[in-house]
Every structure is written in C-alpha cells, then in structure tokens.
Batch of 3 targets.
Target 1
Amino acid sequence: MSDSQRWFFLIFTLVVGFLLYLLQPILSPFLIAALLAYLTDPLADRLEARGLSRTLSVVVVFLVMTTIVLLLVVLLIPRLGYQLQVMIKMVPQVFAMIQTVWIPWLEQYTGISFAEFDLQSLQALMSGHWQQTGSLVKGVFSSVSQSGLALAAWVANLVLIPVVMFYLLRDWDVMMDKIGVLLPRNVERKVTLWAQECDEVLGAFIKGQLLVMLALGVIYSLGLWAVGLDLALLVGMIAGLASIVPYMGFIIGIVAAGVAAMLQFNDITMLWWVGAVFAVGQALEGMVLTPLLVGDRIGLHPVAVIFAIMAGGQLFGFVGILIALPVAAVIMVLLRHLHQGYKSSKLYDC
C-alpha cells in the first residue's frame, strides 16, 4: 500500500467517524436495519440457492421474522410486564429475608457484627429510586402522547426499519460486490481477506453466541416454569442475556431464581430443583449449544465485548452500541495482523 493510499484510508476513516457523530440522532433505524440484514442474509442466500428468486427469498425471510415478532409481542411481552410487577413487589420481602435470615446466619458463622449496616435506609433508597423510575416512565409516555411530532417520529423510525432492511437484504450481495470493485487493486486481496476474518469474528459472536444466549434463556425459563417459579420467564430471559459473558448468566440466574424460590415456596429443598435447572442448562451449553452454534470459530473475548459496548455508548450513544461489535471485530483483525507483522519484523527479531 502506497503512502497516498494510507492517507486516503486514514482521512476516509476520520470523515466517516465524524459523520457518524453528527448524524447519530437519525442513524439508529438504518443501523438496526443493516444489522438485521446482515444476520438474515445467510438465510436468504440458502433460499436463493434452492431456486427462489432473491426478492422472493427476502419476502419469505420477512414473513418468518414478522411471525416471530408478533408471537413475542402477543405471548411474551405481557407476561414479562406482569412478572416485572411481581418482582418489584418482592423487593421488601427480599430485604426482610436479608434482615431476619441471612444477616443472623452470617453473624453466627463469621463472627462479624452487621449491627451498623443500615438496611432500612438502603431499602428506602431503592424504593425511592423505583418510584422515581416509575414517574420517569410515566413522564416519558405522557410527553410522547402529548407531542404528536415525537410520536410521529417514533412511528416513522419503527416503520423505516423493515423498509430499509428489505432493500438492504435484497441488494446485500450486489453492494458487497460493488464495494470490492471500488477497492484499489493492489490491496483488494488483502482487504477481502480481512473482511472475511471480520465476518468470521462477527459470525462467531452475533450469529453464534447470541443464539446460545437465546437458547439458554428458553431452557432456563422452561426449567424454572416446570419447577413452578412465578418469575420463571423474567429470570430465565435475564440469565440468558447475561450469558454474553461466560458463567455470568449462570451466577445471576441461579442467585435470582434461588431468592425468588425461597420467597415463593419458603422451602429450602426448592433450591435443589433450581440448581438442577441451571446445571442442565450449563451442561447443554458446553456439550451441545456452543459446539453446534459457535463451533471453533474465533469469537470476541468477553472483556473486549463489554469494553466495546461501553466505549461505543460513551462516545456515540445508542448508535455507538449498535456499531460497537463490528468496529471491535475490525480492530481485533487488524491487531492480529499487526501482531503477525511485528513478530516477523526486525524490530522483534533483531
């Protein structure tokens, strides 16, 4: 790569970053649509390989996605809202259990006095924040309902996502080919190789790890529902989402489910059933889900994922969260090649 090409790519990167910063208020629907198009492009390609036209393949993908979204809205959202209300009502019971059961047990077996621990003030503080959160949510919905312009903008963004996704998905392969044609000939092969490695990293995480998270959420929810836990869906979904970091979903889920089970049943033997549910989930993740959905493809390190999402949100808000993982994948690939270049350079082996 020549010096002029390096300067061009550097300036191009800076200009794109600056435009993202300026246009972030309107970019959310486009980025969400692009992410959905990226995730569903392999499915459309498979349908196209079976003899369907590209447009018909995209229509089939849309019908499947629409059916899934409608099922989520009709079946899951009301249930999650109800369980969230039940969880809020359980907060005082949790503090009472801490005060009457856990603190005396800790004092007995550790010899440490918790008399100065002001649990009532903490409970009052959390209750105040719950009330403020409720007031904030009510205020947001009130302002949205009173402002026709804000409501129209929200609806427009919601409608814009499937429209943009349809056109992006229909022309995805064509756009990728045109981008490849625009690359300078002397770097086209190398950039294509890097793009394939970035796709491998993103595929290993987004198309693999997120499916593992979804599957774990379903497994935990069904298992806790079979146990009879009222908060089965809420706890299961939270544990599945927290599984973005290995073992975090297991820890958060088993603790939350254990507390909820003790409050609901007041029977310590239920903890064994809760533990069995999460043990089965971990076994399925290690022996079935991860090998099947992720395989041996290279994924992003959990720490890199957390840092990328937090850094993207800090720099660009919600838009930054959407582009965090693709940018992290590109940086990871570049760092890998930089490491290889350093190991083979005279600077390393002198």
Note: Confidence is low (pLDDT under 50) at residues 130-141.
Target 2
Amino acid sequence: MRAAVLHEIGQDKLEVLDDVEAVGFGPGKVKLRVRATGLCHSDVSAMSGVLPQPAPFIPGHEGAGEVIDIGDGVTGLSAGDRVLVCWLPACGTCPACRRGQTQLCLAGFMNAGTPNFKRPGGDVFGFAGTGTFTEEVVVDAGCAVPIPDDVPFEIAALIGCGVTTGLGAAINTAQVEAGSSVAVIGCGGVGISAIQGARVQGAAQIVAVDPVESRREAALRFGATEAVAPDGLADAKQRLTAGEGFDYVFEVVGKSVTARTAYESTRRGGTLCVVGAGAMDDNFQVNMFELFFDEKRILPSMYGGGDVLRSYERAIGLWRAGRIDLESMITHRVQLAEINDAIDQMRTGEALRTCIEL
C-alpha cells in the first residue's frame, strides 16, 4: 500500500512509497482504511525533531476512515464502521484516567515506540502510535472512535486533533468567561479553533496575532474582532485594555519567546494558556517576584484539557448547530502524492488546514 515516509529526522521531504505494510493486527487491535487526514503542525515538528519520534516513521495523526477488521476482544466496533482516529486514547485504569484527566493518560504515548508498519528494509513507526499518511493503519481499538453518518471524513479528521485541541483550550482549560478580552498568538488550525472556542464562550474582544496576513484575514472570518501582526500586539493591548493586558492569552506557537510575549500581554490575575507543543530544550522563564506579584495563572492545555470523547461530541454538536465553522478551515485539498507541496504551504502559512484525501 501507499504511505508517505520520513526516513531520517531532520529531512524536510517525505517519500511516497507503495511497498509499505500495516502490521500488528491482533487482539485488541483495529485495522482502518484511511479516507481523509489533516496536516497538523505537530507532524512537521516531529519531522524536524522538535517533538520526539523514532524514525523511519509515517507522519499523520489527524485522520478518519472506515474499519476494515477488528481483532479478538474488540467490542463496540464492526467492519464498515466510520471512525475518527484518536491519537491519545484513554486506558481507563491509570491514575490520570481514574481522576477524570483522560487527556493525561500515557497509554497512547507508549504505542509510539512500537512499529506498526514495515517495508522490505525493516520496521517503520507511525507518528504518535498512529501514522495516517497512509491508506491503511493498525491501531489500538481505543484509537478508533465511531462518528455519526452525517459527519464527513474530512471534518471528523479535524476534530481528531486540531479542533479538539483549540476548542478545548478555550472551553475546558481556560474556561473563558463571557464578556472577557482574549488574545490568540498563532492562528493556524489550532489557533483558529481557540478563537472559535472563545467566541462560543462569549468573549467580547478576541485579538488574533499572526505574522501571515492571510491567517489574520481568516481569523476575522472565524470570530476574531481584530487581527494584528506580532508588532501590533502591544498597541492592541494599550488600546483595548488601557495597557492592563488581556483577560486570557493563548500561546499556540510552541516557543518560549511567544510564551513570554503572551505572559506579558496577560493582565495581572489573568490567564495564560499554553497550547503550542514545543521543544524539550526550549525553556520558558518567569522570575519568582513576578510569579508571586502578578498572580497570573499559567495553564498548559494538553489535547484540549478534557475528556476527548466528550470533546468530540461537543465539537460535532456545535458544528451541527452552526456555532463553529469547520468546513472553511480546510483551505487546501491534496492527494497523497502532493504531500510535500502541502507541507510547504503549511510552513509558509499559505494553508490554514490541508486535507489529504486517500
């Protein structure tokens, strides 16, 4: 079958091959036919080495498709079922799951170290234990979440990561209050979803911050009340908050420099929500006096900061009700053979979200 493979960490191009086989099918596993997958910035971060991932590997973790076969012991799924891929399934038994913090379950991360593909030359890993830039994939049964018939595969794929992450950051983690002021730094797919989440929560002012003009324009269509380049954030803070700072600031880039800017743009007693996934050697610093004196809440948000199955249901409900726009987030559609063009479009900021159709 066909799949897009990165041979070594640090390479900037994928090779689309037709000699890849999905392996590992057995008890507790599900084999899927991928129909649509989104290109998420985390895929590119894994390619560059910012996010740890064994190689060679197949990127992709934001996917949807149909069940081909189920292994022994799998319940609630049947061949032909339409599903989205959950790259961080909850085991249900670990301490995090028992506390209700299923987004912190480590079971899914353990899968990242087990190859679920192979080629004539050896094993191939799937990114985050999945790997959806391929026609077929074998995953744990918990990774295959049934979706209603009225949800298109490309919409389900977005809900599988970017939409859930951004919406959840605003709704679950930060719990944006109605009438509040919000700034979102980084307006790719996750940032746009955070903007939509803040709008759903009733924020009065939502300032989108991004260096790419097309993304700023898109942010306005999705609910931002104002959009500025990074050098315009200080002026927006002064004009809109009298210099005090925003009630909520979302960092959706994954870099310490933007996290520091976000901290400084947050009012005393406000909330900085860190959504971007960054590198392990990129350290964010605050001094002990400002930490005490400013009383700003610093809240990381992992996969939307809540139960992902409930978050999926909420996203579908909001989409059905017309309260969030998911179709318009897909600005580009490509075939698997064009995956490197899609990656270039993401790097330049031309694409908001790209759907790879398989």
Note: The mean pLDDT is 95.
Target 3
Amino acid sequence: MARTVLGLVAVVLLMLALLWAVQRRIIYLPGGHPGPASAVAGPTAREVTVPTEDGLELGAWLVGPTGPDRGVHVLFAAGNAGHRGYRVGLARRLAAEGFSVLLLDYRGFGGNPGSPSERGLARDVRAARRFLLEHAGARPDRLIYFGESLGAAVVTGLAVEHPPAGLLLRSPFRDLASVGQLHYPFLPVRLMLRDRLDVIGPIQRVRAPTIVAYGGADRIVPPEQSEAVAAAAPGLVRTLRLPGADHNDPVLLDGDEIIAAVVELGL
C-alpha cells in the first residue's frame, strides 16, 4: 500500500512539474503571420516596427483614419490567442470614426521574435506607447488604451505607469488565477502560475475615464469577474453589458456598442 501511495504521489508531482514547465504554452496561443498590412487592413494601414527596451523588434500595423481625423490614437492590446489580422474589423471601424489605431502583436505573436510572458507583454505595450508618441504623432492626452481579455490586464498595468485619456477594458478578469481556477478546478492554479496578470489591484490606482465592456453569457471570463473589475475602478464612466454575448461573439469584437464606447472616450 505504501508503495502504491508513493507511486501516486510521484505521478502527481511529475504532472505538476510538467504543467509548471509548459504553462505558458497553454496560456499564450500565438497564431501565424497576419500577412501584408495594406492587403489585410486597408489602404491606410502600414507596417511598423516597434522596438522594445530589451532589444526586440515587434511587427505591428498602424491604421490611419479614413473618416475625419479626431487626432486620437488607440493602442489596442489583444487577448491570448491569434494575431493582429483577427482585429482588422475593429481597426477599420475605428478608422472610419476618425481614429488612428495601433494593432500590436506581442512578442512571440504574429511572427514576432521572443516568447510571451507577463513581464514581456508589459514591455511590449510600453514600447507601443513610446512608438505612438515618438513616431506616430500621438499625444498623451489624446491616447486611448483598449485591452481585450488578457490584454485588459496588460493595459491596466500600463495605465498605472502612464495614465491614458481613456481606458476601455473588454471582458477583463480579476486576475489570471481567478479565471484559470474556473477552467482547471482540479489544479492548484494560484500556486502554480508564473504570470499573475492582475487587474483588480492595478485598476484601483487608475483614475482615467474607464469603460468596462463584457458579455452576459461569457463562458471564458464570467460576467461577475468583469463586474468586479468595474466595481473596483475609480475612474469608471459606465459598464457595457451585452446580454447573451459570449467571449468571442462579433458584437464584442467590433460591434456598434464597442465602437460607440471608444468614441465616447475619445470625445
């Protein structure tokens, strides 16, 4: 019996060690290369290179306005999967409203060098902001951060360091462990995670005008988590609950309500 118990313990420890080693491959799911900017994102889109403080050169798309120029830039930070090509619809709709949009791919995403991590993604959005200010004519008081799901954690951290003119958090979670525990209830997720990606803590220090948007039927990030983020935000303008919407439904990706929320922050 003792040998059996020891054997089971050894198997469990081995599995936990394996999960510790490969967890970032489970969390971050890069897609392939998005293709050429103008062919995918339209004639006002151009390929740009965003240099990071640790020596990486990240590919991104800067999509210029097709409607009357508002003089407002949007720094978009995506979720944990895919590449910038999947958010072309959002960029085109915002461009039609007069915004300039930077679609950033993190390190390891969209053909970029490096491997994603919490620290790395924080460096990437800092670099994106610096690029917009130094090379794209953005002004700090006319710059909006738009974070989607995991990206909401990334831009909330950036907003603590460099307050934006407005902050849109789409489907934010309390922290990565909170949502991870829901999907892996049989694992000690909070003890195992290397990357914390906390939103609740940092958002309490952000006083920029904030809108929290989320789906009422989100099966990846439960609505209660997004509502908790909204409740903790001192700069909250309003919440935008989209009844019946799941995490990746079109209405949350680039629907009228999302576009209107960016316009509201950009006024």
Note: The first strand starts at residue 29 and ends at 30.
